[in-house]
């Protein structure tokens, strides 16, 4: 009892015997065992933990991005269903779309993985102050020299357009040594056609004025649009030409900075498409709301606008216009591209049309690139872009090496059930 009391008293008075200091080896082991993970803590990290923490943080950021993208796509789908209504026609279209998607799923999974995890993809680069003023950049693996550039406006019926839809085309063109900038824009009901054209124009301006910092050649920029994106891009191009012709406005970007415009499966005369879209399920009331009323259809119809006396001088400023369309396209008839090319040629513009027998609305943009190997439309685009490239032989080799992403029998079945 006395010994215990003495020990307690010594402890309280601060006069207890000090424990002998540990040996240097033991101290080092203790530090290594209890070392904090923060690099500024002044203590050596535990081996391997820094790399693990870095990878964990990177993985968490990627998961967060995937969750945000998934939420956006789900919201866009719900908006589309709310505006279009759900009836027998839409139930059948939805079932066909599900079958179509399942058949192409092997390719979609690979493209989604590439989009979120490839170091070649720079997602959501900010180009403006409005919602969805973002673009994705697809950078070729070869880094020697400045690369030609494509500014791409994706489709989506003016309602579900999204920059991520351009991942497959961005990948295929990047394989051919071309930088691709997929421009996102406000969709209906977040914005109307005027907002979409404004966003596309601002995205083109960003590409023209900033692409050099990403390894792009400012002297070799090309504009590409697909479906509704082809219409939006054509409107932005013609509007800028009209501004430059009438007001000399080149403060943001100039039509002369674009070497050519490629339109894929686009519609260029809305007056002819109102009833067609109504029969296809994009009802007249919704379509007119998107286009800011019936009185604005003419204003946002490039084929009609170039015939106006006030716009005719602007036609001479337009770059080479090249259109692609499938003859079995039921979403937007190929006659739309034919009529636009005819009107352009009648007014002195340089315009060409490539029609693909038996191709549907999605064949040129989805099934053919998923097929791999040689792709006629992409070859045409790449041949124009690389026409002044001394190293074009390397790009032709990349065309032959493009890997198949979906088996042929699944692509054939997808074409048969496609709702497009």
Write up this protein.
The protein is α/β, with parallel strands linked by helices. The chain contains 17 helices and eight strands. The protein has helices spanning 2-12, 24-34, 49-84, 88-103, 105-117, 167-175, 193-210, 228-246, 270-280, 284-290, 302-305, 312-315, 335-346, 363-371, 376-385, 392-401, 408-417; strands at 121-126, 134-138, 147-153, 179-183, 216-226, 258-264, 320-326, 351-356. It has an eight-stranded mixed beta sheet, sandwiched between helices. Helix 4 runs antiparallel to helix 17 (408-417), helix 7 (193-210) packs across helix 8 and helix 14 (363-371) packs antiparallel against helix 17. The longest helix is centred in the N-terminal third of the chain and has 36 residues, at 49-84. The model is unreliable at 1-19 and 24-39 (pLDDT under 50).
């Amino acid at each position: 009892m006395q010994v215990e009391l003495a020990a307690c008293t010594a402890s309280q008075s601060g006069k207890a015997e000090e424990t002998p200091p540990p040996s240097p080896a033991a101290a080092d082991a203790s530090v290594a065992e209890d070392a904090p993970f923060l690099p500024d803590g002044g203590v050596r990290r535990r081996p391997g933990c820094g790399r693990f923490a870095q990878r964990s943080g990177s993985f968490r950021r990627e998961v967060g991005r995937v969750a945000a993208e998934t939420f956006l796509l789900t919201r866009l789908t719900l908006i589309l269903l709310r505006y279009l209504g759900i009836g027998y026609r839409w139930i059948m279209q939805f079932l066909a779309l599900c079958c179509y998607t399942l058949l192409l799923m092997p390719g979609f999974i690979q493209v989604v993985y590439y989009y979120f995890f490839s170091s070649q993809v720079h997602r959501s680069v900010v180009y403006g102050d409005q919602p969805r003023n973002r673009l994705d950049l697809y950078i070729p693996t070869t880094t020697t020299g400045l690369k030609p550039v494509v500014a791409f406006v994706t489709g989506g019926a003016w309602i579900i357009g999204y920059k991520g839809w351009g991942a497959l085309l961005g990948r295929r063109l990047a394989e051919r040594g071309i930088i691709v900038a997929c421009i996102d824009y406000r969709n209906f009901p977040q914005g109307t056609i005027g907002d979409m054209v404004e966003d596309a124009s601002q995205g083109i301006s960003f590409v023209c004025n900033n692409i050099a910092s990403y390894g792009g050649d400012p002297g070799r920029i090309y504009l590409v649009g697909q479906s509704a994106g082809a219409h939006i891009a054509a409107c932005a191009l013609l509007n800028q030409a009209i501004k430059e012709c009438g007001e000399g406005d080149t403060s943001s970007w100039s039509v002369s900075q674009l070497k050519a415009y490629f339109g894929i499966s686009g519609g260029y005369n809305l007056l002819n498409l109102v009833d067609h879209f109504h029969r296809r399920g994009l009802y007249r009331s919704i379509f007119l709301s998107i286009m800011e009323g019936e009185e604005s259809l003419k204003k946002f119809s490039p084929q009609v606008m170039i015939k106006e006396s006030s716009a005719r001088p602007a036609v001479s400023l337009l770059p080479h216009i090249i259109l692609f369309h499938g003859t079995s396209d039921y979403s937007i008839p190929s006659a739309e591209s034919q009529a636009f090319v005819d009107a352009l040629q009648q007014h002195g513009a340089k315009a060409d049309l490539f029609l693909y027998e038996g191709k549907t609305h999605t064949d040129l943009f989805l099934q053919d690139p998923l097929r791999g190997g040689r792709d006629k439309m992409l070859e045409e685009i790449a041949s124009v872009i690389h026409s002044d490239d001394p190293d074009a032989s390397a790009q032709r080799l990349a065309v032959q090496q493009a890997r198949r992403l979906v088996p042929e029998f699944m692509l054939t079945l997808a074409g048969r059930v496609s709702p497009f």
